Amino acid sequence: MKRFQFRLEKLLKIRQYREREWELKLADITGQCLVLEKKIVISKDNISHTLDERSALGGTIDIYDLIANEMYIARMKQAIVNAGIELEQKKREREKVRKKFLEASKQKKILEKLKQRKEQEYYKEAKKEEFKNVDEINAGDAIRKLV
């Protein structure tokens, strides 16, 4: 029995490739979102660490250190705001990429199901043909024995 060959195999390969491309793009943008989230957490930790150091000094506070701390805290707060804005943009972009990935995945699955159905039909027909051939051989043998 000859093997099943799907006529649309090249199209299926293209759709698998497209799905993989979108999957990689989704992974990349998700990684960027995680980096931004981590940057926000680190900035918040830096602020709390700076405030803890300032309170640990107690009564001896140098005005220049106080100004430097305040400027550092302001810079960290601005970094948090900027990272938050960028994170929201990346999340919107990630949602668009996710939708395209899902569409590519859906298109690939449609072709895979079609391939599976055609393969089942092919092998079902091949079994019928094989059974028919065996039946003809058996019928021929029976006729030869009678003659």
Summarize this entry quickly.
The protein has 147 residues and is mostly helical. The protein contains two helices and no strands.
Write the H/E string, N to C: HH
Number of helices: 2
Cα(first) to Cα(last) distance is: 32 Å
What is the quaternary state of this protein?
A: single chain
- Spans of 5+ residues with little confidence (pLDDT < 50)? none
> Number of DSSP strands?
0
Task: Present the secondary structure layout.
Blueprint: H1 9-57, H2 63-146
Helix pairs in contact: 1-2
Describe this protein's structure.
By secondary structure, the chain is mostly helical. The chain has one domain. The protein is 90% helix and 0% strand. It has two helices and no strands. The longest helix is centred in the last third of the chain and has 84 residues.
Which properties best describe this structure?
rod-shaped; 90% helix; 147 residues; mainly alpha
